[in-house]
């Protein structure tokens, strides 16, 4: 059986539905090696089709495919987990029912992956405040998926064709980063990155560059001691375990070499250290990958974009890249 990839629709009032339809209309969802199934809302997707002046019809399916949308002659298979009043929804104004639907799309897709029914999942953007209003306490996608999979530690990787960055700390005030960093967290990030690149990307011996926290790798302790106290010991422990990790590297020069193929991934100490160079190279086609889960999960590297939701202007490039990356990852497991 050729198991499908499940694409969660994301926020019904954000850009998720329209970039799914946009990707369909431009032919980017054709010739995939796996079937694509949207976990979402057929009425909301039909509303998104209208943004592009595309005629659409809905028919009923069987099994996982509860509905089939035919949009401008192209088919989109859907498992309906919500039937929201699409005509009454306002772009950028999610209701608690929308928040509940967003979370249910994710939970359903994750469960199908864990059961082996689906090969992997790709997620469109959600609104954290909306899922909180629906009674979910998770900060976002990653934490919800980790809880569903029973995993304590995951790693956020942002990736494109030229660069992959993995973060030790994520959404955290910059002033808190030195306090939160520890040898154990750095080592765990290196281990998960190495194992995931081997398992899901088919790399026999991933080359990992581990960055310093401070300018010039601390300049021998003049600008901080985290390199000698935390980062270097973590790298040494990783190398002792057979991982090809090097560093601590100064962040101001390392990306020059990483973007030219010198490394398979860069382990970064904090959010902007990794995401600024990543988005410089891959602003439109960057992909968010959650490492450390027992399943394949990729996502767009952007949010709900309420400022342009409902205009049809949002780019589908990151979504298409996320689908293509999930497709490749599932080919290795």
TrEMBL record:
It is found in: Cytoplasm. Its main location: cytoplasm. Its cofactor is a divalent metal cation. It catalyses: 4-(phosphooxy)-L-threonine + NAD(+) = 3-amino-2-oxopropyl phosphate + CO2 + NADH. Its EC number is 1.1.1.262. Pathway: Cofactor biosynthesis; pyridoxine 5'-phosphate biosynthesis; pyridoxine 5'-phosphate from D-erythrose 4-phosphate: step 4/5. It comes from the Bacteria. The keyword Oxidoreductase applies. It is an enzyme of class 1 (oxidoreductase). The keyword NADP applies. A divalent metal cation binds at residues 171, 216, 271. InterPro entries: PdxA, PdxA_fam. Binds 1 divalent metal cation per subunit. Substrate binds at residues 141-142, 279, 288, 297. Keywords: Cytoplasm, Metal-binding, NAD, NADP, Oxidoreductase, Pyridoxine biosynthesis. HAMAP family: PdxA. The active site is located at the dimer interface. Homodimer. Catalyzes the NAD(P)-dependent oxidation of 4-(phosphooxy)-L-threonine (HTP) into 2-amino-3-oxo-4-(phosphooxy)butyric acid which spontaneously decarboxylates to form 3-amino-2-oxopropyl phosphate (AHAP). Belongs to the PdxA family. This is 4-hydroxythreonine-4-phosphate dehydrogenase.
């Amino acid at each position: 059986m050729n198991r499908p990839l499940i694409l969660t629709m994301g926020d019904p009032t954000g850009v998720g539905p329209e970039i799914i339809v946009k990707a369909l209309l431009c032919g980017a969802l054709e010739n995939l090696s796996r079937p694509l199934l949207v976990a979402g809302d057929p009425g909301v997707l039909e509303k998104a089709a209208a943004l592009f002046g595309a005629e659409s019809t809905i028919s009923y399916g069987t099994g996982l495919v509860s509905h089939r949308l035919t949009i401008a002659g192209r088919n989109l298979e859907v498992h309906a987990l919500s039937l929201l009043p699409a005509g009454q929804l306002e772009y950028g104004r999610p209701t608690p029912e929308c928040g509940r639907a967003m979370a249910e799309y994710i939970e359903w897709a994750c469960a199908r992956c864990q059961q082996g029914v689906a090969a992997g999942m790709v997620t469109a953007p959600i609104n954290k405040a909306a899922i909180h209003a629906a009674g979910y306490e998770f900060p976002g996608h990653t934490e919800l998926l980790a809880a569903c999979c029973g995993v304590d530690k995951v790693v956020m990787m942002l990736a494109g064709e030229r660069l992959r960055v993995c973060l030790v700390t994520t959404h955290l005030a910059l002033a808190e980063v030195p306090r939160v960093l520890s040898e154990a967290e750095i080592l765990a990030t290196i281990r998960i990155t190495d194992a995931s690149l081997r398992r899901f990307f088919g790399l026999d011996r991933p080359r990992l560059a581990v960055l310093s926290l401070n300018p010039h790798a601390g300049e021998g302790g003049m600008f901080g001691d985290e390199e000698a106290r935390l980062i270097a010991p973590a790298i040494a422990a990783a190398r002792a375990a057979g991982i090809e990790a090097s560093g601590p590297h100064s962040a101001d020069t390392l990306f020059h070499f990483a973007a030219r193929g010198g490394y398979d991934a860069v382990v970064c100490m904090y959010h902007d250290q990794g995401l600024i160079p990543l988005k410089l190279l891959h602003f439109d086609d960057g992909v968010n990958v959650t490492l450390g889960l027992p399943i394949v999960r990729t996502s767009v590297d952007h949010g709900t974009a309420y400022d342009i939701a409902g205009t049809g202007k949002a780019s589908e490039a990151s979504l298409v890249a996320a689908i293509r990356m999930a497709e490749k990852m599932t080919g290795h497991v």
